[in-house]
Amino acid sequence: MADAGFQFVLVLFREDDDGQLGQRLGQLPITPDWEPAFAHLRFWAIRRELRPPVASATDVCVRPVWHARLGEPFLDAFDLTLDGEPVVTDRLPTAYLAPLARQAVAALIASGVVAAADRVRFLVAAQPGASDPAPDADAWLFEDVAQPLQITDRALPVAVAREQGPLGQARHVGDLPILIPQAVIDQTHALSRAAATRETGGILLGQLHRDPDTRTLFLRITAQLPARHTVATETRLTFTEATWAAARQEVAARQRGELLANWWHFHPWWCRPCPPARRATCTLDSNFFSADDLQLHRVVFSQAYATALLISDGPTGLTTTLFGWRQGTIVPREFHVVRAPSTAKGDLTHGPIHTPA
Amino acid sequence: MMTATIALRASDVSGQHAVRATAVPGDSTISELLNQLLAKMGLARHDVKGRQIRYRALLERESRHLDAHERVSEALQPEDLVVLTPNVEAGAGRA
């Protein structure tokens, strides 16, 4: 059982003037979305060759780490443990549940219990009792099908490897190195410029490689497919069922064993029509990953190596930001631009590392 | 009365999350099949605004999306693969 028989509860407090927990506002049982954190742990083990490259399985257990000062039933963190040997664990902070806490606070604000200006803090508590009852489908005899991840040997470009260090660690410890050809970025920019005031997007295909010398696992983006059958407006881009069907057809037709695990989209510069004086005080910024973007990434691209490239228009032109999973949470992250075609030996030209602002 | 069942495979869009159901009642509808698969695979049912996310079952053998009211026994063959394809929005959503 994933949650080891615990029901998790969110406990909300008003923050007092000293920044401490103040008035208790209430509590609510929650069903955390563990899958991104589980995916992170499984992929972490694959990267370090502690488990075979097989994606998706029901093999992770969550246990509470009791709060050091407040004690049981409050938590400091969660311990995630992957089945099998050697033991692979990850300590997940309770901040992982911050999105659920924000939803709960929004409900409190809507009901008038707290004001929008109030500061609210949360603790997580655990009670005996499973929070995730099995789906009512036992009679259909479901079984998980292990899907092997295709990982091929390929040298990590020397310049990238030098920055990764011998343990394959990116500048943010643990991030998977990701290489994106300049040509792919150029294509996304050209499509974005053509879309102008409407959103647009597409699919990024990629392959996972392991450097035979350093054993570093990395993702290499191989191509960009403009998303077909989408519905686009100035502030919205709908990827329809037909979009995914077309993308899968294209991937199959290419016959390169590429992963359909990354995407990109474009945010126009919504502030362009506004007068400069208003822009100066406006907090609207197109360079952000919206709640809808997060949702799409979670629904379709929940693999730990899945990324999303965001092209944003603004006063200085187009900017490029990569978002990806880090310990089950979507964050802006670094990537490497490959400026020259690859060779069999993998001695690619190293481009700049893009660090999100 | 016994209901004939068939075995089916299903995956998400990426193909990296897959399940197999070995006893799907032939008289169930595609809508019922989708609901069971979504629950089993832990795929999100609602978007950030609480609206239901629409999924359709893609039968790649025929390159078509199945209609919700079709019967499993009429639309699918044993070991068919159905892909759960969502209708999802990206973007700032301020429209």
Topology of this protein?
The complex is a heterodimer of chains A (357) and B (95).
Chain A: E1 6-15, E2 21-30, H1 35-47, E3 54-55, E4 60-66, E5 75-82, E6 88-93, H2 98-110, E7 120-128, E8 142-145, E9 147-148, E10 151-153, H3 158-164, E11 178-181, H4 182-195, E12 200-210, E13 217-226, E14 231-232, E15 237-239, H5 241-254, E16 259-267, H6 276-281, H7 291-300, E17 307-314, E18 317-326, E19 329-333, E20 336-338, E21 350-353
Chain B: E1 5-11, E2 18-25, H1 30-41, E3 54-59, E4 64-65, H2 72-75, E5 81-90
Strand content of chain B: 25-35%
Low-confidence stretches of chain A: 166-170, 342-357
Number of strands of chain B: 5
Straight-line N-to-C gap of chain B: 53 Å
Give the percentage of residues in beta strands of chain A: 35-45%
So what's the overall shape of chain A? globular
Low-confidence stretches of chain B: none
Q: Tell me, what's the shape of chain B?
A: elongated
The strands making up the biggest β-sheet of chain B line up spatially as 2-1-5-3-4
Number of strands of chain A: 21
Major sheet size, sense and barrel closure of chain B: 5 strands, mixed
Termini separation of chain A comes to: 40 Å
Oligomer classification? heterodimer
Number of helices of chain A: 7
Helical percentage of chain A: 10-25%
N-to-C SSE string of chain B, H for helix and E for strand: EEHEEHE
SS element count, helices of chain B = 2
Mean pLDDT over all positions of chain A:
86
Computed structural class of chain A: alpha+beta
Order of helices and strands of chain A: EEHEEEEHEEEEHEHEEEEHEHHEEEEE
